[in-house]
Amino acid sequence: MTESHMKEQIVQIPYSPRPQQRAMHVGMTQKRFGVMVCHRRLGKSVWAVNHLQRGALTCTKDRPRFAYIGPTFRQGKATVWDYMRVFAAPIPGIKFNESELRVDYPNGGQVRLYGGDDPDSLRGLYFDGVVVDEYGLHQGDIFTSILRPELADRRGWAAFLGTPNGKNQFYDLLKTAQSDADWYWTIYKASETNIIPKDELEAARKVMSQDEYDQEFECSFEASVKGAIYAAELAKCREDGRVTKVPYDPVLPVTTAWDIGISDATAIWFCQKTRSGEVRLIDYYENSGEGLPHYVRVLKDKGYAYEQHIGPHDMRVREMTSGRSRVDVARSLGLRFYIAPNMPLEDGIHAARMLLPRCWFDAKKCDVGLEVLGSYRRDWNQRISEFKATPVHDWAEHGSSAFRYLALALSDVHVQKQRRSVPVSSQGREGWMG
Q: Do residues 62 and 102 lie in contact, with contact meaning Cβ atoms separated by under 8 Å?
């Protein structure tokens, strides 16, 4: 990795990999897919840039394409773009496209930086290799629904890097890799690599909570996500055995709760309410880049008998181009929404916390939804040493918002009055849609 041959000229790259980085390079040349769990300051971003660059320079396919995908475009630009420029600069004929954060190599290869916060920007592309950094902070299905198909025709490779942030999709992918001989995986803890001096680790331990230290330096997936809003309630759900198999009961009608995105994700919770007050979360669905007709088909294909559909208050907003609101569009498709109360965010979070002790979750069908709720968090304000009031706007927001609307609607008598006031003839026209 320290030199590249181009036109019979030896080019020295300013990169001398640590033993752990070298082992990761070797592992990813032997396997097509890999998961690497790394403690802070191991050098995973430096590894990613150089592994992608080697791929772009040595790939023999026509027009090689490689990508670094960070949790957000802005974060990737701040942490990785400088590395890309430094390690590519000695190569003759190299070109940097600042507006697209792209490196063009003399052989026609490219390495480009993307953000997982805009998954639609990745659709329709092809890749010979991708590195997904901090995979646990990405949209849960970014690999299966977007990236995996784009690697298929050219048999591209994918590496997933990160530091634990609770038991989310990164944890699940590690378990997949550990049980599949076709995958490479490794875990590097700070107590074992000796990259960070012991006195520095001790100093960090004194000012960090045990959960923070175990997560950041000892790669613990058991530590709670810092700032997780529903951590205690979800832990109690699991402790009480309320994350288990929860089958659909045909006797009980299904209520859905939605957060509807335009350019980002749409999330739907499916629940059944019992007379005793239990709320059974039997299913969860999330997708992006699709219109309402897609989600109408999803509801129909699931085969549930629906009672009501709860949507966000901004569904009433009319678009300037068509003059129609999303409520109108949904109604034209046979889907009638009841709008959740327009309450302050903190009131909605409180309602969700009050609802969770009554909830049972299907462990399999709601696995992504549970990851979403567990990853919904507030960011830490270093300047004033407290959590910010507004939750982080990332992939976990959509499913958490849908759950919040469900909680508000179930606690609001207006929705029940609205449902009872629907004329019988109107219900009949809508049929199975409720």
A: no
**Residues 236 and 195 both lie in one domain:** no
Check whether residue 213 and residue 290 sit in a common domain.
Answer: no
Helices (H), 103-168: 148-152
26, 34 in Cβ contact below 8 A? no
Main-chain dihedrals φ then ψ at residue 149, nearest 5 degrees: -65, -30
- AA letter at 301: D
| 226 within some domain | no
Q: Give me 212's structure tokens.
A: 């923070």
The radius of gyration of the chain from alpha carbons, rounded to an integer in Å, stands at: 24
What domain count does the chain have? Answer: 2
Which two tokens mark 97?
């496209």
Q: Which amino acid is at 50?
A: N
| CA 152 distance to own-chain centroid | 21
Q: Which residues of 299-338 are buried (b: 16+ CB within 10 A; e: fewer)?
A: beebebebebbbbbeebeeeeeeeeeebbebbbeeebbbb
Reduced to 3 states (helix: H, G, I; strand: E, B; else coil), residue 366 is: coil
Least confident of 189-193, 219-223, 311-315, 326-330: 219-223
Q: What is the model's pTM? A: 0.62
Q: Are residues 191 and 295 in the same domain?
A: no
Burial degree of 381 (CB within 10 A; 0-12, 13-18, 19+): exposed
Range of the domain at 205: 3-217
Angle at 160 between CA 154 and CA 166, to 5 degrees: 150
Q: Can you tell me the distance from the alpha carbon of 425 to that of 419, in angstroms, rounded to the nearest whole number?
A: 13
pLDDT digits (tens, 9 = 90+) for 31-85: 999 999 999 999 999 999 999 999 999 999 999 999 999 999 998 999 899 999 9
Give the position of tokens 């298929």.
Answer: 152
**Residues 6 or more apart whose Cβ sits within 8 Å of residue 317:** 325, 326
223 lies in a domain? no
36 and 171, same domain (yes or no): yes
Determine contact, residues 430/284, Cβ cutoff 8 Å. no
Distance between CA atoms of residues 263 and 281, nearest Å = 26
CA torsion, ordered 199, 203, 209, 210, to nearest 10 deg: 10
Give the Cα separation of 274 and 250 in Å (integer): 12
CATH code, 366: 3.30.420.280
The tens digit of pLDDT for each residue in 14-28 reads: 999 999 999 999 999
Interstrand relation of 243-244 and 65-70 (parallel, antiparallel or unpaired): unpaired
First to last CA, the chain: 61
Are both 265 and 396 inside the same structural domain? yes
